[in-house]
């Protein structure tokens, strides 16, 4: 469909849904949706050509104040009915550009993702990359936190938290999953079945196909809703809608959903396993006659991910909290190995018996705090580097990595243990991201500088409640 036809269809869609408002959403550098709204009568063809100005200096990691003017332009193919505003509203996802040169903005994550798809086609290796993220999340009934010069704390609560098994709830009916005991129980132990079903139905009403929903391993309301795979940019768009819908459905039920990787110690954190595959002319390039029914292309793609994983996680696991999940003992894949079916490996090859189209890899290290546009692009670029260089991933690891003898475990490389280590790995190894001008030096430097100045330094200088427990009387 031509852009002109897509614009006409989008305007028609808004009229058919009796839209009173138009919401314009876009992704900031770090990975949070931002938005501005206009009355529906302003939705015309000119908006899609001229865009709408905004202050880029007020957004994290973007423009300096002396060059603050930016422009956002709605992508007509992204129009959806927004189920949450009181007035009928249609939403568009926007692209960011310079208002003078009209060039796409280098630090617009969606622009990076589009360039990754263009680079894939330019290589001739494949024409399509499919991605399918599994973003886990927690649902809490109460969340309080504060950080002051003289005090800091956090407190979360959940109706199904294991810590509430002895609380006087008048009556306390039990049915609270124990730590690491929340995987797949039926109601009433699964207290969020109806909430997840409401989220799933809302996702489908917004045109996002749901595969499955279930309770996850952790106590305290850990959930997962699986959505169907799609192409890179479209999947990153859908991931933002997914987070938006999950949070807002929880909110209208007087609950709070969070994609924070490790909100509580002592139990599993939330990961975002990312499934991906390469296709060309309608054929799955990952299907073959090698290990686990994979092709040499797939194995080289895996090798690229494993080689560049320390740098990738600076983008796919982008918070200091991410590395509180990436520790042994809580099913987090910290060791850089690959295997069929083995969930302790960083890269898993899921079962696809007799179905060549289902051949794919699953990178299990990422978490849902990431910016999907940047994370998917980085994974694709690492995998393509492996294919272009003909890398060999070596022998698979079909043992339980968690229970290997120490001397054998030491032979398997690990992901960085902190965000600071990951950022250093990215600084040292990012040439593969610069191919095709997908990422730029400006993007890499801006990412590292922002994370260091605004996240690593503050966490270094703030004492925590645990430190008081450990050291106050020391």
TrEMBL record:
Q: Look up the record and give one Gene Ontology term from the biological process aspect.
A: glutamine biosynthetic process
Q: Where does Mg(2+) bind?
A: 134, 136, 216, 224, 273, 362
Q: How are cofactors bound according to the entry's free-text note?
A: Binds 2 Mg(2+) ions per subunit.
GO terms (molecular function) for this protein are: ATP binding; glutamine synthetase activity; metal ion binding
Q: Where is the GS catalytic domain?
A: 109-474
> Where on this chain does L-glutamate bind?
268-269, 325, 331, 343, 364
Record's catalysed reaction(s) = L-glutamate + NH4(+) + ATP = L-glutamine + ADP + phosphate + H(+)
- EC no.? 6.3.1.2
| Enzyme type, top EC level | ligase
Cofactor requirement: Mg(2+)
Q: Where is the GS beta-grasp domain?
A: 17-101
- Main subcellular location: cytoplasm
Q: Which residues carry this modification: O-AMP-tyrosine?
A: 402
Which residues does the record give as ATP binding sites?
211, 275-277, 343
What GO cellular-component annotations does this UniProt entry give?
cytoplasm; membrane
Where it sits in the cell: the answer is: Cytoplasm
User: Which keywords does UniProt give here?
Assistant: ATP-binding, Cytoplasm, Ligase, Magnesium, Metal-binding, Nucleotide-binding, Phosphoprotein
Q: Which InterPro entries match?
A: Gln_synt_N, Gln_synt_N_sf, Gln_synth/guanido_kin_cat_dom, Gln_synth_cat_dom, Gln_synth_gly_rich_site, Gln_synth_I, Gln_synth_N_conserv_site
Name the PANTHER family for this protein: GLUTAMINE SYNTHETASE, LENGSIN
The Swiss-Prot or TrEMBL record describes its family as follows: Belongs to the glutamine synthetase family.
- Name of the protein in its database record: Glutamine synthetase
Organism of origin is: Microvenator marinus
Q: Which gene encodes it?
A: glnA
């Amino acid at each position: 469909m031509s852009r002109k036809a897509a614009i006409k269809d989008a305007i028609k869609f808004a009229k058919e849904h009796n839209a009173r408002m138009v919401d314009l959403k876009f992704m900031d550098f770090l990975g949070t949706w931002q938005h501005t709204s206009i009355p529906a009568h302003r939705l015309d063809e000119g908006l899609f050509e001229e865009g709408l100005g905004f202050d880029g200096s007020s957004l994290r990691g973007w423009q300096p104040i002396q060059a603050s003017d930016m422009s956002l332009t709605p992508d007509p193919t992204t129009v959806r009915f927004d189920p949450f505003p009181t007035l009928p509203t249609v939403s568009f996802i926007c692209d960011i550009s310079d208002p003078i040169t009209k060039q796409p903005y280098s630090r617009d994550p969606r622009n990076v993702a589009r360039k990754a798809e263009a680079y894939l086609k330019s290589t001739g290796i494949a024409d399509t990359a499919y991605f399918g993220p599994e973003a886990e999340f927690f649902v809490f009934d109460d969340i309080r936190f504060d950080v002051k010069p003289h005090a800091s704390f956090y407190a979360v609560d959940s109706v199904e938290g294991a810590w509430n098994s002895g609380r006087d709830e008048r009556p306390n009916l039990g049915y609270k999953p124990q730590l690491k005991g929340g995987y797949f129980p039926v109601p009433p132990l699964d207290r969020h079945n109806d909430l997840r079903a409401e989220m799933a139905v809302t996702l489908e009403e917004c045109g996002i196909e749901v595969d499955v929903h279930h309770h996850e391993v952790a106590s305290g309301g850990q959930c997962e809703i699986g959505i169907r795979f799609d192409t890179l940019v479209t999947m990153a768009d859908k991931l933002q809608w997914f987070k938006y819908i999950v949070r807002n459905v929880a909110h209208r039920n007087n609950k709070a959903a969070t994609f924070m990787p490790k909100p509580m110690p002592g139990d599993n954190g939330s990961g975002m396993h990312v499934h991906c595959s390469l296709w060309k002319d309608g054929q799955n390039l990952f299907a073959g006659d090698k290990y686990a029914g994979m092709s040499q292309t797939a194995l080289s793609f895996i090798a690229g991910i494993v080689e560049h994983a320390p740098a990738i996680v600076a983008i796919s696991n982008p918070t200091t909290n991410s590395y509180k999940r990436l520790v042994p003992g809580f099913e987090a894949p910290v060791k850089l190995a690959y295997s069929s079916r083995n969930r302790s490996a960083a890269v898993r090859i899921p079962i696809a018996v007799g179905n060549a189209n289902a051949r794919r890899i699953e990178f299990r290290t990422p978490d849902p705090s990431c910016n999907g546009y940047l994370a998917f692009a980085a994974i694709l670029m690492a995998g393509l580097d492996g294919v272009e260089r003909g890398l060999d991933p070596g022998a698979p690891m079909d043992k339980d990595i968690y229970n290997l003898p120490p001397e054998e475990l030491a032979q398997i490389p690990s992901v960085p243990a902190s965000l600071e280590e990951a950022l250093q790995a990215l600084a040292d190894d990012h040439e593969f991201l610069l191919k095709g001008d997908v990422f730029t030096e400006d993007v890499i430097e801006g990412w590292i500088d922002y994370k260091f100045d605004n996240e690593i330094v503050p966490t270094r200088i703030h004492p925590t409640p645990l430190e008081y427990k450990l050291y106050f009387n020391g």
